[in-house]
Write a structure and sequence with these properties.
With 242 residues, the chain is mainly alpha-helical. Helix content is 62%, strand content 9%.
């Protein structure tokens, strides 16, 4: 299933959702190199890497060449000035290719506006940040020795999906199933999306990050659900039904 749109109107302009989408598009088309070799160097220089976060040290040449975080070969770090804490944030805005970028931004566009309305702009920014951090932590815990860069906004966006599930489980998501447009309850769509992460076999997909971000979004939204829905009802009036 692929979401086309949700049947869940908002009363706000989702400024932060639009800003995040614009920032991701700008980074991909303006800052990320287009050639494969330069692009690889760029991601190793700027993106989060589990091995680096585990050891607290930038990767050295031997680790990169061998793919072994525990390599004992004496070798200088390839990017000694890399700021590891900043790399976690930067990773939220890097994508491997146009399909990766487009898919992530579409999911954020479909589900982000309603979550932003419920959380408010500042709360939504915090959810996105905390969700992304939780996603990174989940991946590092699952693969503490990984030496490949972790890139993509999907972990943070998964937190938005988790929050949507808690806040709007009965709202409809118009979804493309093969070539047919089918109305699907959000609880079913997002539940299947979440369960589907555990069936991912592509080693290039950091599904653990998706799961971690989603769980963060569910937890935060569940803790604040009554307050968040109260905000939405005040915006929409008494006729609103969650």
């Amino acid at each position: 299933m692929f979401p086309i749109r949700d049947v869940n109107p908002t009363r706000i302009t989702p400024l932060l959702t639009l800003l995040v989408i614009a920032a991701n598009v700008l980074v991909f088309f303006v800052l990320q190199p287009t050639s494969e070799q330069e692009g690889m160097q760029f991601t190793f220089r700027h993106a989060a890497i589990a091995c680096e976060l585990t050891t607290g040290e930038p990767l050295n040449i031997a680790q990169i060449r061998s793919g072994d975080c525990a390599s004992s070969v004496a070798s200088p770090p390839i990017f000694p000035q890399k700021r590891l804490a900043l790399s976690v944030l930067v990773s939220f805005f890097l994508h491997g290719n146009l399909i990766h970028l487009a898919g992530n931004m579409w999911f954020l566009w479909v589900f982000g506006n309603n979550v932003e309305e419920a959380f408010g702009h500042v709360g939504y920014a915090l959810l996105y940040l905390i969700g992304g951090l939780g996603a990174t932590l989940a991946f590092v815990m699952a693969h503490p020795s990984a030496t490949d860069p972790l890139i993509g906004a999907s972990g943070a966006i998964a937190a938005v999906l988790g929050a949507y599930l808690v806040l709007y489980p009965r709202h409809t998501v118009l979804s493309l199933v093969f070539v047919v447009l089918v109305p699907v309850p959000a609880a079913l769509f997002l539940g299947l999306w979440f369960l589907g992460q555990f069936a991912v076999t592509d080693p290039g997909v950091a599904w653990e990050a998706h799961v971690g971000g989603f769980v963060v979004g569910v937890g935060v939204a569940a803790a604040l659900r009554q307050m968040l829905l109260g905000r939405v009802r005040r915006l929409h009036g008494r006729a609103y039904a969650d």
